[in-house]
């Protein structure tokens, strides 16, 4: 079973901007921010906050070495996306005029293997075929960093790494037996392990906490816009922050809304899967941030860079101005 969105579920909530500033939100069709987008549009939280969120869901492909949503933002076809902050730092250091405007969450994944696999942890990956979306995927970077730090080996050298090019392609690769393990994103794992043919060995969030050496929940992914959109429409950015917080509050408390999301956006998933996704989302999401949050993000980056280096991360620092706490 695949937890792909029904595009019609969001289409039903398309409405008229009615003179409000438009923010074009472009997100992956199988990404977890779609639950927030649905909530914002269903309850009109964008209009309540004084802006209009125009939502389009896109494939999770790679385009010119960028994820589709990254390419859309950098090519001027989007005003709002989410990606991990290491990718944000890498693209900003390369000159992309992008900026992180708000946290999303600890959007990492987990190591998934067949139920009868001998793999019990990241220290068992040597000699095995490991599927990843791409080598610059945050889950692979975390795994390499943790293996170097805690297990004294580099799986990029001692395992066979297989790039799938997309999250959906990675699941298919695992199901066809083309890899022995897959580093899949958290929101897809409940459907993969449902039925017992596969199991999750380790959530990547454990590695985030070990490497960052903090109890603070670090938002690995943030919402991004462009410098030009932020300068031209700061009120819309502030409005998005308000709408996002309202949506998070509702999603944290409203179990009936999650049942609706299961029916509308999870392609017929049963109650157990919907509940697992709901609980995982509530654990993953970050509602707000402050200076200490950003310091924690910098500490995690420094740990990753110390262990994995610029060749793995693709960047040696988080450029100045990457995160904007105030607008």
UniProtKB/TrEMBL annotation:
Pfam families: NMT1 (PF09084). SUPFAM superfamilies: Periplasmic binding protein-like II. Transmembrane segments: none annotated. Residues 53-250 form the SsuA/THI5-like domain. It comes from the Archaea. This is ABC transporter substrate-binding protein. It comes from Halorientalis brevis.
